[in-house]
Amino acid sequence: MSTISNDKYEAVIGLEVHAQLLTKTKAFAAVSPAYGGAPNTQVTPLCLGHPGTLPVLNENLVRYTVKMGLATNCKIAEKSIFARKNYFYPDLPKGYQISQYETPICYDGEIEIELDEYTKRIGITRIHMEEDAGKSIHDQDPYHTLVDLNRAGTPLIEIVSEPDLRTPQEAYAYLKKIRQIVQYLEVCDGNMEEGSLRCDANVSIRKRGDKTLGTRTELKNMNSFRNVERALTYEIERQIELVESGGEVVQKTLLWDPAKLVTRQMRSKEEAHDYRYFPEPDLPPVIVSDKLREEIRSELPELPNVRLERFVNELGLNRDEATILTENRNLADYFEESLSKLDEPKAIANVMLTEVLRVLNDQSITIEEFTITKDQLAGLISLKLEDKINSSAMQTIFNEMLSSDEAPEKLAEKMNLIQVSDSGFVEPIIDEVIKANPDEVARYKEGKTALIGFFIGQVMKKSQGKANPKQVREIISSKLESS
Ligand code: ADP
Ligand code: MG
């Protein structure tokens, strides 16, 4: 993918992210919004838009949204109201979506994003509560469009950023940070591919140094992090080429086509409907008292950036290690729980970043599905630190533990991998190896001391991995030098 390096223009990007909340019931009805039920089985008369039904606010919708607001340094409105966003669509039987308009519950926040070379603060304009619409299904019946209203009324938050992002890479980092925060807070599962996190991107270009904003286009339908980055890269180049060839950017909504890697026009914003927003008469204002706000603040978990700093400053990990380990809250929890069994942050981090992550990758599983227990992992690392096993034995036992719940000591004994640091055990083997390789001995003495690795390897092989390589090295070099 090309990166944009244009000295004349800069891009301006603002993201609108929708996150589906993990509440047990819908925003205004006591029915589960969980994904995957048979069509129209998770509906109440309210979800169907029947006349005479009234919405009842789910308290957790408010709590989860305020959590997200506090975690992104937003101000929390003491009083905010719901609004009706009116439009007609078959998957919206009541003819309006309940949202917030002029008074969002959270506003004026910011988060810090990290890129390879720098960090940057991105303003959060607002976070508001709203409900999702149902789903129209166009590909199951050749003559009809079908409607599934299970999703109607699913609680969402919309997080709107300031136009502070300047590159597709910054947009990518911002989105990852948002996902990390919702996952840490456990308010949303953050899965973009399944649609529980959705992102629309607004993008314009301007001459470097200009202060006013250019005309923007809005990109939709990017259902992965990579697609957001790719679509923005494509669209910024398109706008630059257009302007360079004398054209003008027209405000419109574009759909990203992930197969063809291009954006396509959807509808022009000028023709977009007027939503006729007005205050929702069926719901009272939402009041968040100081007491409630502070109660929610006290329930916040340690946030990812704070945890990362603690891993660096208190546990002595380097920044890269800490970044990877804190990326996912469950991974960081696994690490810290192992640490509570064996206080060796460096050694545990090391095994997690190599062996554990390798297995998660290879098997496409998450840390929750990983079968080695924290006790086993800590036990294995202590065997190594106590010099009872060498590195290759450690690897062998690790692999064995993937399908065994036995303790690592047991496995080490069973597999005959306990390291023998008794010189009476290794010396005869070393003598044998020296005797069997006179040419290498001669070359070693002529100065090819790198051959020490060869001798160690031979001894390790003959000892079936049980010799202590450090000890072997010492004995071999003293023997070769004195012989
Ligand atoms: P809308 O009413 O169309 O949703 P908003 O004013 O709410 O528009 O802005 C939506 C998003 O677009 C925000 O993230 C904002 O930062 C971004 N945005 C607004 N103007 C521009 C622009 N000229 N270029 C790029 N992004 C913009
Ligand atoms: Mg908007």
Measure the end-to-end span.
61 Å
Biggest sheet: strands side by side, in what order? 2-6-7-10-1-11-12-13-14
Low-pLDDT regions: none
How big a fraction of the residues is strand? Answer: 15-25%
Helix/sheet category: alpha+beta
For the record, the count of structural domains works out to 3
**How many H/I helical runs?**
15
Question: What does the average pLDDT come to?
Answer: 94
Tell me the total number of β-strands: 16
Helix content: 25-40%
Inertia-based shape: elongated
Can you list the ligands bound to this structure?
Answer: adenosine-5'-diphosphate, magnesium ion
Rg, rounded, reads: 30 Å
Main sheet record: 9 strands, mixed
Tell me about this structure.
The chain has 483 residues and is of the alpha+beta class. The protein folds into 3 domains: 9-292, no CATH class; 302-414, no CATH class; 423-482, Arc Repressor Mutant, subunit A (Orthogonal Bundle). It is 39% helix and 19% strand. The chain is built from 15 helices and 16 strands. The chain has helices at 59-71, 168-185, 225-244, 290-298, 304-313, 319-327, 329-339, 345-363, 374-385, 391-401, 408-414, 423-436, 438-445, 452-462, 469-482, and strands at residues 9-20, 75-76, 79-80, 83-86, 96-99, 106-114, 119-131, 135-137, 146-148, 155-161, 197-207, 217-220, 252-257, 262-268, 278-279, 286-287. The strands form 4 sheets. It has a 9-stranded mixed β-sheet with strand order 2-6-7-10-1-11-12-13-14. A 3-stranded antiparallel β-sheet has the order 5-4-15, with no helix packed on it. α9 packs antiparallel against α10. Magnesium ion is lined by residues 16, 160.
